[in-house]
Amino acid sequence: MSTVAERGGWVAATLVAAGLALAAGYAVGARQPAWPSYAPVFDEVKDGVVSVVVAAPTARVGSGFAVSSDELVTARHLVIDAEAITVRDVDGHAVDATLVGADARTDLALLRVEGAHLRPLELGASEPLPVGATLIAIGSPYGLAHSLAVGVLAGRGRRLQEEGGGPRVDFLQLAIPLNPGNSGGPVIDEGGRVVGVLSGTHAQGQAISFAVPVEILSSSLPTLRSGARLSRAFLGVRVDRDGDSVVVSQVVASSPADRAGIRPGDRLSAFDDVPIATPADLTRALDALAGGSRATMRLLRDGQLLLVDVQLADWAEQSVVIGGMTLRPAPGAGGEVVAVRPRSRAEVAGIEVGDVVRSVDGAPVRAPADIRDALAGGDPAQLDVVRDGAPVSVQLAGSF
Known about the structure:
The protein is of the alpha+beta class. Helices cover 19% and strands 38% of the residues. The protein has helices at residues 4-31, 39-45, 76-79, 214-225, 256-259, 279-287, 345-349, 368-375; strands at 49-54, 60-68, 71-75, 85-88, 94-103, 108-112, 134-139, 147-158, 171-175, 186-188, 194-201, 209-213, 229-230, 233-234, 237-242, 245-251, 267-271, 274-275, 294-301, 304-311, 313-314, 320-322, 325-328, 335-340, 356-360, 363-364, 381-387, 390-396.
């Protein structure tokens, strides 16, 4: 029979042993954390991701990734007006790139890099991904090359800029902390496959960004490789739902619609033989066409059926008048102010001829049409402009 002292010694020894075991277990746990590691995926794809650098007409940095040994995909808005493009790989090696094709409808561009021997990334599929699926993004936020960010698929089928120009696709919405410089970079699934191409972030949100689904990239690649430079089609009408029909409520002066003789009050029933029952139907029909395309519109005016042929324009090349300022296209920005009406909102705010508008309420603008749409409601807005080479913020009052 053991004594009390012997039993006490046994208990003490047991506690010491348990403590050592716990310590050892903690050490093992510290070496093997419970959270997942994304290092293997990063190592697998990093050689196919690049930084995209544009020096002129305005300096900017974005991202891209290889789809063949000498081809890169990036965001169109990053490179469309570039005088020269440089790409840098994960080791910092720099090489010149040339723009092959671009599509404003999807905000995608294809670059060619001769003799780069890039490692192409595998294209996957976004459609099977459930909301909540873990995704990673690799890019160059604020020029910090090959930065990795992690998040989830937050939604799908997001349409941006329902009126006017800009990319017109059903975006993937991402809950990933991204920043300027990530545009054009890949969104990767857990298998290292590309499921989207980053197009932009929500300027007033946190960890809200948007990506073009990889299925759209796959379908666009043959056109981009052919050297096509596709733009968004611009018609120049605003339409509203009126019962079972769609009615033209506004026609933009000197627009394709105006030149074709379309008038407010016309009832639209078909566009290129596609039935139009809602304003969204017209948006989808225009989304399928590029600037310069021809289309036939079926209208009802004063009880008479009309077939009207219209030559669609390039949305990015249209000058607009809004808030008392006339804007023309400006490379790499929303528009350049070429006239200011006396006693208008623009003059009261201090807008000057020569100002180049870069964003409205923090949202980047890429054509005068974007500025028109952002200010169409007549609400107060902040315009970020470049004046004599320096950034200036201007507060535009509401309509008066």
